[in-house]
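Example 3.2
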Amino acid sequence: MQTEFAFDVNQLSKLRFAPSAYLRYVGLNVPNTLLRKAFFETYGLDLPDIIGTRQATLRVYRFAARRFLPNIARAEVVLHKKSFPADVPSPELDTLTKDLLQASADNDWERFRNPPGIGTHIFAGFIYILPKVGALKLLAIQGPQVQTEDLYIKSVNHSINSVRYTLAHFDTIQRYLPNRDLDTGFVVKPGGYRLTDETFARLLEKLAEHSERPIPAQVKHDIIAYYANPNAPIITKKTPRKWREVQDNLATLKSMKTIGNLNPVFDAMDAQAAAAAD
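Structure, written as tokens:
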């Protein structure tokens, strides 16, 4: 996360992001009902079971994403702008620069771009004096090297081209996204990445806690397939107690019902919540 944040701050310092004021102006919002259904389709879990039923939780999250974290990033720019590597001329950089200039002109980004104000400098001062221990270590960022910056630019260009191709051929391409680890870029496989193994075990545990609820068939299929190879070097096997829990939860999962139409599921959940409130 620290590395990713450093990359973001570096690009922000070079004006390669849409201004946060522009993003607020666009005003993208995801309705809570849609967010809840998307969460269930992806994980098989009811969102209130994870974050609670209080709307304040979502408001705090949205404030953090829209205001607090962008403010921290801008403050980091003030502190580290001069320490980031200079751009090295290349065809890849020229391509990215051209695309960003076009996006800026099309959306009038410059109208929303402002120099760092007093609030940003106050944030920067706090970050500078805070001890970088525990969670605050994330604030002690270091800029990317020239080589990694070049790889980053190439990956952004590749992503832009992939999105353009997908949008242009949306009706004809196979509507399937390969299951890749977003940290490593590799195809997800058991034992391939410690955090993936831990996440699957945690998801399996949360699903088994509500074994009476039907879950999306694809979620059930994917988890069973993940644990199908008994010889896979899954990190959870190194802790016998946790591995026994995985096996117990997996047996529970296999007995759980699946659902295609989500509406009955949410109607039942809402009815249970209403009954509990009464």
